[in-house]
Specification:
By secondary structure, the chain is α/β, with parallel strands linked by helices. The chain has two domains: 203 residues, 3-Layer(aba) Sandwich (Rossmann fold); 42 residues, no CATH class. It is 32% helix and 27% strand. The chain contains eight helices and twelve strands. Strands 1, 2, 3, 4, 5, 6, 7 and 8 form an eight-stranded mixed sheet that branches. Strands 9, 10, 11 and 12 form a four-stranded antiparallel sheet that branches. Strand 11 and strand 12 form a beta hairpin. Helix 5 crosses helix 6. Bound molecules: S-adenosylmethionine. S-adenosylmethionine binds next to helix 2 and helix 3. Keywords: Iron, Iron-sulfur, Metal-binding, Methyltransferase, Transferase, Transit peptide.
Length: 266
Amino acid sequence: MVDATAYAAYRMPATHAAVSAVLGQLGQDLRPQSLLDVGGGSGAATWAALEAFPSLASVTVLDQVPEALKLGERMLPRATWQQWRLGEPLSTVDMVLVSYVLGELTDDDQHTLVDQAGAAARQLAVFVEPGTPAGYRRILDARDRLIAAGWTVAAPCPHQLACGMTGKDWCHFSARVNRSALHRRLKGAELGYEDEKFSYVAVTKQDNTTPGRVVRHPAFRKGLVTLQVCAPDTRVGPTLVSKREGPVYKAARDAEWGDTWPPAAR
Ligand SMILES: C[S@@+](CC[C@H](N)C(=O)[O-])C[C@H]1O[C@@H](n2cnc3c(N)ncnc32)[C@H](O)[C@@H]1O
């Protein structure tokens, strides 16, 4: 139980923030009623899903570690907490979440889990990994398998083609996490926040309507915003927006890393 509690205090706020940021990028018209949080541990991703989707009525967290499940159950008794090991069957639900799990598995086991999760989800499947080159590669691999299985990538990509990020770049995003006093003590940290970097893919059965995606922190100069944008034609490059462009400039000033671009017309 000590390990599970330490994980909860040390990592849950960050994985929760990452999954919240991911779910915040999905269309407003998804209304899943049932959720499986696979490798859900003490339920960080489940909390994010419940906040993003008030439609969720049935929520199940699966994990191999009973202590993590017990701790999660104390914090969220309304969910079902069930011991489960990779390879055991998954029931069919509207939405499957796999948050920070692939990195703990061998390549073969990652494939098994991606295929299983994809087969278990009716509307939406979401995979989140640390925002490192290795985490990104695992997400790309999952993305390929999901597309081959008939899913449509809803986010972050504005297309279903091969990723256009090349060279040393990798697709990742950032979520700010406020640190509690305990969190700061555990990490020996001074700052009142940390930035959790993550990579992700979310797939649905709907058409992808993402116009483009901001894939870096915007850069601001006097009267000019530079957005690094991943476009539907797979190109990743800078978009410059100057003050002369009026409302578009205002939108560019408000745009954040991870947002869609250009913004929807109002
Ligand atoms: C880094 S934690 C992530 C927990 C949670 N999803 C989150 O985002 O905070 C990885 C979880 O995957 C679970 N896990 C790893 N391998 C597993 C397996 N073979 N079967 C079931 N669960 C597994 C671990 O027990 C652990 O709770």
